[in-house]
Structures are given as structure tokens and as C-alpha cells.
Amino acid sequence: MSYIIGRLFQAILSILGISTIVFFILQLSGDPVLLMVPQNASAEAIELMRHQLGLDRPVFVQYLDFMKNLLLFDLGQSFVQNQPVIDILIQRLPHTLKLAAAALFLAIIVGIPIGMLTAYYRGKWVEKLLMPIILVGQSSPAFWTGILLIMFVSVKLRLLPSSGSEGLQSLILPAITLASLTIATFARMTRSSIIDHLDQEYVKTGKSKGASSFRLLSRHIFRNASIPIITMIGLETANLLGGAVITETIFAWPGLGQLTIQAIDARDFPLVQGIVLFGSAAYIFINLLTDLVYAWVDPRVKLGKDVAS
């Protein structure tokens, strides 16, 4: 409990620090009022809108109000959409969660088995067949993979839609695009971790007793080698939640990634701050959850000592 409380305190400090950095960086990006008013607007109209949005106050006063509202879980009002930021995030969040969950599911069921097989059958035809998949996934950026899938699957073969979020069919291509790099990452991490355990005495003992390859991999080697894999799953989950900007833009997926681009283009300060805060909180929470899973998977890990170090 003391470890959890300490980590939560660190998380709060981290979020406050990120909020401060984001606030002052956005202040340097320009005046959002100039994008919102008509081109022929008078100076009086510009000043009136700046006053209505509270942008005519000193920056430090704006910062204090922002932090005070943040402590009350108030993310403010969107300049452009004229809605509470929290409501906008709630509207877009299910789409991002759906895409991230689909991509993570693909990465786990494809990447981890590939890593296990290429490690256990080193130097054999299985490794030679599967390693190119890892290399292609590791070296293919999301924008390139997404465009190729649209051109081949959607335009040429007309099998799946190229944009939108209507039904399961619209989810397949964005999920594959988002998962491609994560699949390769999981495969490489799993392979490296399992190779470190193949020469352990318990593996030799299991082979001498006639244990099957499947039993050794699934019930013994994988569990002992799972700590770095769990770490990678936690990090990639956070990355998938906050890093789908390119994929969502390519496929016009109405999630937080697409919303981020729109908010930055419009200099919608409260909305950008809200998105960054959500991403930071999700990243910190998932890392904390990952640390707690360590102790469940491997009782040798002691919270507050091994994990914290």
C-alpha cells in the first residue's frame, strides 16, 4: 500500500509538471482568436473575443486559473467547439479505445507466438520463415503501411472501406496498420527474452524428462521470461492509446488522434491540454498497473525494491 501511495503521489506530480509545460508551450504557438474571427474583423471585435475567452489577462493569471480548475477536474471549455473539453474527450474516447484494443489484440496473438517460435527454433526453417515478417514490420512506418493497405485492399480489391468507423469492417485496416510495428516489437522482445532462458537448467531438466516443446514454452519458459514482455505490453498499450495520430488521420478514424490534429490546427488551447493530460494520465496509470502485475507473475519481485529500482 505504501508503494502504491508513493507511485500515485509521483503520478500527480508528473501530471502537474506536464500540464505546466504544455500550458506555456501552447502560449508560444500563436493567438487562437486570429483563426476564429473573420479576416475583415475589426480590432474591437478581436479584442472583444479575446476578452470573452479570457486571453487578455496576464499569462501567469491564466496559468493559475488553469491549475485551479485542473485540481477540480475541470478541463475548461473548447474555444472552437464551445463545449466542455471533458465532454468532447468522452465522445471520442470509445473510438480510440476500440482501435487500440484491436491493435493490441493483434499484436499479442501474432507477435508473441512469432517471438516464441523464432527463439525456440533458432537456426531452423521456422526462424528463417518468420524473421522477415519481424523485419518488415519493424521497418515499415504507419503512414506507408496505411497508404499501401488503402491502395491495395480498398481501392484495387474493394474488400474493405478506406475510412470511417462504421462497423467491424472499418476497424480492420486501421488496426492492422497500428499493430504492424507493435507486432514486430513484441516478437523481438519475446524472442530475446526466451533465448536468455533456453540454456537454463530447468529447461534441460524438462527436456530430459520428455516434456513437449509446447509445454516447455507455454508453462515454464514463457512465464519465467515474461517480465520484460509485460513491461513492453504496458508501454505499447500506452503508446497505442496516445500514439494513433497518424493512423487515425489516414483512415479518418474519429478518435483522439484525429482530434489532436484538429485541435492543434485550430490552436484550441483547452482541448489540446485536455488531450495531453489524458494521454499522460493513461501512460502513468498503465505503468503503475504494469508494476503491480510483476508481483503477481513473478513472486520473486518485491514492490518498492526491484520494481522501483
Explain the overall architecture.
The protein is mainly alpha-helical and 309 residues long. The chain has a domain of 213 residues: MetI-like fold, CATH 1.10.3720.10. The chain is built from 14 helices and no strands. Helix 5 runs antiparallel to helix 6. The radius of gyration is 24 Å and the shape is flat.
Question: Could you give a short description of this structure?
Answer:
Helices cover 74% and strands 0% of the residues. It is an all-alpha fold. Helix 7 (142-156) packs across helix 8 and helix 11 runs antiparallel to helix 14.
What is the number of helices?
14
Average predicted confidence as pLDDT: 82
The level of helicity is: over 70%
> What string, H for helix and E for strand, traces the elements in order?
HHHHHHHHHHHHHH
Please identify, by name, the CATH architecture of the domain at 85-297.
Orthogonal Bundle
CATH superfamily of the domain at 85-297: MetI-like
- Global morphology: flat
What's the arrangement of secondary structure elements?
Blueprint: H1 2-27, H2 33-36, H3 43-52, H4 59-71, H5 85-120, H6 125-139, H7 142-156, H8 169-195, H9 201-208, H10 213-224, H11 226-242, H12 245-250, H13 256-265, H14 269-297
Helix pairs in contact: 1-14, 5-6, 5-8, 5-11, 5-14, 6-8, 7-8, 8-11, 9-10, 11-14, 13-14
Feature tags:
mainly alpha, MetI-like fold, 14 helices, about 75% helix, flat
